[in-house]
């Protein structure tokens, strides 16, 4: 899935979906407002977050290592079921472009002369070929870039 474009994203982010609390489920985490209520939407890098993309089994293995390193709460990670089977690690704005990443890793960040878009699926419903490998737990909790870098270099 090609996520880079020279076009400007003029769409407003969607409203946050309702997430009622109940006696049976009193601690339902708030769904961040940058997650679409249905389907898949592209989010412009550098607005809510940037992303680091790792294709195939290497991305899935890194996501699982990162989850073990963080007690099962690595931050939001999206995976693609077809094509290059990309895994997108959503990191804070600016965190992706400030690091030297290993070969095979793509930094999705916007900057002078460059705009990148990151695919984001809804929590539920028809989102194929994208799904959440690890769900977001809060609006501003993203993957820690230094921990991700360590997860991408397990032999060091």
What does this structure look like?
- With 156 residues, this protein is of the alpha+beta class.
- Helix content is 14%, strand content 22%.
- The chain contains two helices and seven strands.
- The strands form two sheets. The protein has a five-stranded antiparallel β-sheet, with helices on one face. Strands 1-6 form a two-stranded antiparallel sheet.
- The chain is globular and about 40 Å long.
Which structural traits does this protein have?
156 residues; alpha+beta; five-stranded antiparallel sheet
Q: State the order of secondary-structure elements, H for helix, E for strand.
A: EEHEEEEEH
Largest beta sheet, briefly?
5 strands, antiparallel
Note the overall shape.
Answer: globular
Parts with pLDDT < 50 across at least 5 consecutive residues: 5-28
* Helical content band: 10-25%
Care to count the β-strands?
7
Separation, N- and C-terminal Cα atoms: 31 Å
Q: Tell me the strand percentage band.
A: 15-25%
Structural class by helix and strand composition: alpha+beta
Average pLDDT reading = 84
Write down the Rg. 15 Å
Write the layout of secondary structure elements.
Elements: E1 40-44, E2 50-55, H1 56-69, E3 77-80, E4 86-91, E5 105-108, E6 117-121, E7 130-134, H2 145-152
Antiparallel strand pairs: 1-6, 2-4, 2-5, 3-4, 3-7
Helix pairs in contact: 1-2
């Amino acid at each position: 899935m090609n996520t880079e474009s020279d076009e400007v994203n003029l769409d407003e982010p969607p409203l946050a979906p309702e997430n009622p609390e109940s006696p049976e489920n009193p601690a339902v985490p708030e769904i961040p407002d940058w997650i679409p209520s249905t389907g898949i939407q592209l989010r412009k890098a550098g607005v809510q977050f940037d992303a680091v993309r790792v294709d195939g089994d290497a991305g899935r293995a890194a996501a699982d290592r990162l989850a073990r390193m963080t007690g099962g709460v690595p931050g939001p990670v999206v995976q693609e079921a077809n094509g290059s089977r990309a895994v997108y690690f959503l990191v804070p704005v600016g965190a992706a472009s400030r690091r030297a990443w290993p070969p095979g890793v793509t930094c999705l960040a916007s900057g002078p002369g460059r705009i990148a878009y990151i695919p984001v699926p809804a929590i539920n419903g028809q989102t194929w070929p994208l799904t959440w490998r690890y769900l977001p737990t809060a609006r501003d909790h993203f993957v820690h870039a230094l921990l991700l870098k360590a997860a991408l270099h397990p032999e060091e």
